[in-house]
Amino acid sequence: MVSIDEVARLAGVSTATVSRALSGRGRVSDATKARVEAAADTLGYVVSAPASSLASGRTRNIGVLVPFLQRWFFSTVLAGTAAELMRHGYDITLYSVTEDLPLRRSVFETLLRRQRVDAVIAVSIALGDDEIDRLLALDMPVLAIGGPDPRLTTLSVDDVAVARLATEHLLGLGHRTIAHIGASPEFDLDFHIPTQRRQGFEQALTAAGVAVRPTLFEPADFTIEGGFRAAKQLLGRPGGRPTAIFAASDEMAIGAIMAARELGYRVPADLSIVGVDGHELGGFFRLTTVDQFPARQGERAAQAILALLDAAGAQPEQLPFELVVRGTTARLTEV
Amino acid sequence: MVSIDEVARLAGVSTATVSRALSGRGRVSDATKARVEAAADTLGYVVSAPASSLASGRTRNIGVLVPFLQRWFFSTVLAGTAAELMRHGYDITLYSVTEDLPLRRSVFETLLRRQRVDAVIAVSIALGDDEIDRLLALDMPVLAIGGPDPRLTTLSVDDVAVARLATEHLLGLGHRTIAHIGASPEFDLDFHIPTQRRQGFEQALTAAGVAVRPTLFEPADFTIEGGFRAAKQLLGRPGGRPTAIFAASDEMAIGAIMAARELGYRVPADLSIVGVDGHELGGFFRLTTVDQFPARQGERAAQAILALLDAAGAQPEQLPFELVVRGTTARLTEV
DNA sequence: GTGAAAGCGCTAACAT
DNA sequence: ATGTTAGCGCTTTCAC
């Protein structure tokens, strides 16, 4: 391992100057800077992260907390964050925060407290009160993406507005009997996004003078399979089947499409379906959806945390979303 | 930040003893060990990673290289690795190694060389020769999961055997006109798994005395959409359509199922389909598949790298796989 | 603009 | 079994 002294010797300067030249902190003449860089280059020198961290207190490393690594949405956000951070020379330390309680505790009580990260990003994760306490006690910038907690600075889409938009799209096509596939109550206990989507849905209906009917709601677990089951229920129930379904995620919407097909309904001729997310499979299924650009959410979070690191506080920020009309929604045709 | 001296003072011992007691290296009497632990506990002391790393040369951190974070297979392997590593008090630094060449270079030339990781795991990633040179030059344990490179210690499933198993399943059901959806040549240029699957497929056919017909092969890109397109080709081509399809991934197999349905073929009555992976969607589609247990692959890699870290060399290891017969394959019925 | 020197918070000999 | 001490490889005052 070539160390800073060797670079200093080769460049004919002190280690202090090498440090300044390579880090960009403190002034160094252009000439020496060039010489130092050349020396570092020929020696293949790379600053030792532990030594630098110990001396400076900065790590150039961000901790990222992710709940369901295997779900498309989360890994997509993570990919966005990772790319953006790497672009700035930052590493990312990944903490998979699952239901495994002992592991989970260790993240908050030990792993995050080892002085290994400069800041943390929590990706759409429902945190306990004590966990948030611990994050706050870390005394470093913390940013949440899409979580429900008011104590954390949060980047989020306006889920009420998202749902309203999807529902208004359906209303605009003439639909009046619109069902909603949302979260089961347990699922939503600590994570409020699904409830907000339901609120937006009901707001839109009410604003259009359409009554909200409890039989037109069916809970599911945000998977294709869950959406499939829920849609079967909705479509199978006697007495006025829905002519449109708003699913709170694209994966559930895809499940609904398959359920409809299996029951012999044509999408969108007999049934319109709209989802939320911007899932990669959306194009294939020609799914109309409200895209929330998950990869960009991740990037945005990375930028925000970097800003927090060399400047002052960040405010909660509203993330963009957009209706993408494809082939699973159509005008209501008189039955 | 409470430091080791405070713990030493409170426990009435030297910092060296605290270090020994907390790390488990070197002997400490049970009594003092208990006192030190108590002191650390009441003070909420956690060892500073940079300081410890600088002094010891160990980081308790593993670098993980992942190519397509958004693909189910990769994020599942990663989740397995992450959980297992965390269980042992290790952090994981995630490097997303994509087609972005400048970023990619920075991983190998800078990020990995900062003394931040004790070892690296490369998850099913096609590495260039120079990249492998750089990994080897890192002078630390490196482990690959499922990659093609002979210079790296690799944990992998026997892809030839996997394909043979899938094909033999189909042959055993009486099928003789079996098609294969595999990788396009470009896709396989630097990553040989797809080719191995094709070899296994052809081996099985030949062993059963069935001629290999080029028209019964169709390349795709390992996505649902790709599998869909490929199956349409295979089934639409005039002259002896296949009665069974072996797809080199579950996602392609799912695409094939949908293509078959759309063309009016019943699965498995008219067409049997088998995939590879053990994808989470497999149950929903009742897909017969050869499961390769991705989550366990990740765990296994974590265990192997930990073993490498405190002992001697590891040998390449064969990973388990298993035929899971569900509902998309059936006996050939006379047409 | 540059150098000297004092740490950053630990661990690992080496003593005892 | 425990204490003393010398670093680990940087960054950052403080001088000049």
Explain this structure to me?
Chain A is α/β, with parallel strands linked by helices. Chain A folds into 3 domains: 4-56, 434 Repressor (Amino-terminal Domain) (Orthogonal Bundle), CATH 1.10.260.40; 61-157 and 295-319, Response regulator (Rossmann fold, 3-Layer(aba) Sandwich), CATH 3.40.50.2300; 159-292, Response regulator (Rossmann fold), CATH 3.40.50.2300. In chain A, 46% of the residues lie in helices and 17% in strands. Chain A is built from 14 helices and 12 strands. In chain A, the strands form 2 sheets. In chain A, strands 2-1-3-4-5-11 form a 6-stranded parallel sheet. A 6-stranded mixed sheet of chain A has the order 7-6-8-9-10-12, sandwiched between helices. The mean pLDDT of chain A is 94. At the A-B interface, helix 4, helix 5, strand 2, helix 6 and helix 11 of A face helix 4, helix 5, strand 2, helix 6 and helix 11 of B. Chain A binds a DNA duplex (16 and 16 nucleotides) through helix 2 and helix 4.
Task: List its traits.
alpha/beta; 6-stranded parallel β-sheet; 6-stranded mixed β-sheet; Rossmann fold; 335 residues; 434 Repressor (Amino-terminal Domain); homodimer; DNA-binding
